[in-house]
Amino acid sequence: MADKALNRSGQSLDQSLHDHLWGYRDTRFRLNERGVVELTGHRYDMSGTEMPLFWPFVQDILGHEIDPTDLKSPNAAPVVPEPRPCPEFRRAVETVLAKDRVSDNAKVRLNHSHGQTSNWELYQVIYENLERVADLVVWPESTEEAKQLIQLAGQHGVCLVPYGGGTNVSNALLLSPAETRPIVSVDMSRMNRVLSIDETNQTACVQAGITGSELERALRAEGWIVGHEPDSMELSTLGGWISTNASGMKKNRYGNIEQIVEKVTLISPRGEITHHDSAPRRSAGIQPRDLVFGSEGNLGLITEAVVNIHRIPEETRYASYVFPDFPRGVDFMLRLQRSGVVPASVRLVDNLQFRFSQALKPEATGLKAVEQTIQRTALEKLYRFDLRNISAATVVMEGSRSEVSHQARHIKSLAKSFRGVAGGSENGKRGYMLTYAIAYIRDFLAPYYISGETYETSTTWDNIHNVVDSVKQAALDLHAKHNLYGNPFISARITQVYHSGVCIYFTHGFSNRGLENPLEVFIDIEHGIREAILAADGSISHHHGVGKLRQRYLDRVMTSTSRSMLRELKHSADPDNVFGIGNGAFG
Ligand SMILES: Cc1cc2nc3c(=O)[nH]c(=O)nc-3n(C[C@H](O)[C@H](O)[C@H](O)COP(=O)(O)OP(=O)(O)OC[C@H]3O[C@@H](n4cnc5c(N)ncnc54)[C@H](O)[C@@H]3O)c2cc1C
């Protein structure tokens, strides 16, 4: 199959999406007339349902009442600085790109000047103002156009910033006020074609601006999948995944992005960075390809990649297990990893995260209510679990029917040996799918003066509890330090398992009511938590990347020689710093 084009309109913004907040306009959590939380729209399994436990849960955990009528007002008239003029560049660009693929509209420019870092850029864009905004936005459609664009930027002294889905959570798209050149955001969304499928070698050549949902839709229509499913897959793009070193929920079966991508093309101001052959592995010295992973917009435009594809699995089966406590759940995860029979996805939530997901359940009625009461009673009376201690694992198994059946039997018996009690496939599926709706909760709670942020890290198996305990303690200490209302919400999940360790994902919520200088406090909290992670020997990031948010810690994880080598490599590919976004080692 060749050239599977997907429809995207010209320069206008995608009207189905929120301007700055997460996700689709048809979907949002809201308190309805009866004071009950509901999710609007029809997009997700939980859309259209009421969640009567959620509002009381939030107040209970945060330890204070929330007045539903007292809402923080967003900045109704954001100030968007006038664009810095670049008339010659613009004239030249309009000979390459059709006029409707070049825009200096203020709203369009603002939308292209931030990612999704909650307590920093998103807070600024909603409640304050961004200091620096892109001056122009352009939409290339092909590698050839991208090359010409880069050449023109070099000639006219313009700074280019690649824009994928704008979903990064590392301030990677935050623009520096110190950048005096005109900044041009290069929106890759029109480069969203599956160019070809190689059925024999099971690969597809794909343009880098394709989103995860577009990619899966296009491939599924032909009987294939990639299987890369980051929680942001509806909006994040192939180019974004490569440049941030992304990780998908089903990495155990399909790999992280660096295993999925066989070949990648990046256009730098000095030319193409790629390799010519299509072999699955090569011993050809240091691979320039590897520099593209994690390049965070610093080196050039990723225009296309060859990715591994797989036949749509015969079966996808979900399961869930409840464990008496988090340590028992961790022991189960380790044994599962060691057993070698690891399902596509297995994730473990701590007690608070478990209760959070329970609070998002619709009200059970009739038989369902009876069933839930029996389950709860059985856990407490029969299995002697303390509901304030239990943890839960959700499992996704994918493959042939026999493979899935084998995994299911194995996981069930292993869970049992750690006192795991089966929670059913419905709960497993719910836990997996919940992840797509959860992103909207941050934006629901923000107007009630509740800040939400996530932190992720990786660490070795023997250090999990140290990292988790350190972060939880840091959240408490920071809460006290800044004299915040009530209590913090701080939960932990293990979202990925590896031979030698895991990825740990934290969700942090706290009240920002009464703060005179919220942004300063958020920044201090962000740094306090990251300090705690690093001091406990967690990594700087498992998959969110460095961007500008974690830049200040790079010296602690990278020698100055490594950093200067990277800078010199960048200089050789981009001597005039056309790609001057200044992320990671290049800030
Ligand atoms: C709700 C939510 C859930 C998330 N879940 C996950 C998850 O499960 N796993 C995970 O790994 N991450 C996750 N993330 C983070 C984010 O989705 C990833 O970092 C993603 O890879 C960013 O892709 P993007 O297309 O949105 O890139 P953008 O945010 O647009 O850009 C990120 C960086 O990449 C550069 N870039 C983008 N496209 C190109 C290109 N074509 N060429 C060169 N540079 C480019 C940009 O300049 C920027 O520096 C999540 C984020 C949110 C908000």
UniProtKB/TrEMBL annotation:
The active site is at Y505. FAD binds at residues 231-237, 244-247, 296-302. Residues 130-312 form the FAD-binding PCMH-type domain. The record marks R347 as: Important for enzyme activity. Pfam families: FAD-oxidase_C, FAD_binding_4. Its cofactor is FAD. Keywords: FAD, Flavoprotein, Oxidoreductase. InterPro entries: Alkyl-DHAP_Synthase, FAD-bd_oxidored_4_C, FAD-bd_PCMH, FAD-bd_PCMH-like_sf, FAD-bd_PCMH_sub1, FAD-bd_PCMH_sub2, FAD-linked_Oxase-like_C, Oxid_FAD_bind_N. This is FAD-binding oxidoreductase. GO terms for molecular function: alkylglycerone-phosphate synthase activity; FAD binding; oxidoreductase activity. Belongs to the FAD-binding oxidoreductase/transferase type 4 family. One of its GO terms (biological process) is ether lipid biosynthetic process. Gene3D superfamilies: 3.30.160.650, 3.30.300.330, 3.30.465.10, 3.30.70.3450, Uridine Diphospho-n-acetylenolpyruvylglucosamine Reductase, domain 2 (3.30.43.10), Vanillyl-alcohol Oxidase, Chain A, domain 4 (1.10.45.10). It comes from Caldilineaceae bacterium SB0662_bin_9.
